[in-house]
Structure formats: C-alpha cells, structure tokens
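Below is a concrete protein record.
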Amino acid sequence: MIAYLDTSALAKWYIAETGSEAFAEFIADVPDAVTCRLTVVELRCLLARRRRAGLLATEVEAFAYRRFTEQVAAGYVRVEPVSDARLLEALELIERISEVPLRTLDALHLAAAEAAGATTVATADAVLRRAAEAVGMGVAFFGGAVR
C-alpha cells in the first residue's frame, strides 16, 4: 500500500489532537508513506499559526517541525515535488469530479496522490475524503463526521 498523507492527517503525528492515536496506529502499518512539497509548506504554516494563536509553545512548534524533517530525511515519509503537471492535473480533477466542492489545495493534494501511485489517502478533511472516494481511492479518515 502506498498512502498519501495530506497535511490534516500528517499533523496528527507531530502534535496531539483528536485523531492522533488513530493516525499513529495507521502509519505504523504503512509500508510507503508519501506526500508532496505542498504539505511541507502547509505543515510549517499550521505549526506557526497554532503557535501565534497560543495553542503551541515555541518549543513544541520547533520540535514538531524538526521531527518531521528528520522523518523525511530517514525515509519514513517520501516528499514528491509539485510540478506544473500536478497543477494541470488538479485543474482536470476539479472538472472531472465537479459534484465535490474541491478546493484548490485539496485538488493539488489529490493530483499528487494520484501521481505518486497512492492507493489510499490519509486525511482529516471531509471534502478531500469525498474527492478521493470519487476517484476510486481508499481513504483513511481521521476527522469528524462527514456531512
């Protein structure tokens, strides 16, 4: 199984929040975890935003991001580039699954997942879950109820 990790799921590996334990159990059984460079930017932004909001201590923010970069360097998570081709594929996905209110960055995540050959998308985002299911991918969902 190749599992694509979007930011909403991956963050649960580094900071304690609802779904963190379930994500830790899931990732322990994933032989090939992949994400894209967009996730790196989003994760860094998420950590900084939570620090600024007073939800994370500066030390926790630094530790979480350092842990992520160490796991990437160790090969636990493979990071794929985001090329112009992914942007065009995201555009095509918005057209192909028009019944799902796919947002820009979620379309990019899904395009990256398809390009990486992922069979499963790990997410805590209900819209990305619906989009992944619409294109026939498996989903490991770590969020709340789906509307």
User: Anything to note?
Assistant: The longest strand covers residues 32-36. Residues 2-141 form a domain with the Rossmann fold fold (CATH 3.40.50.1010). Strands lie at 2-5, 32-36, 78-80, 120-123, 138-141.
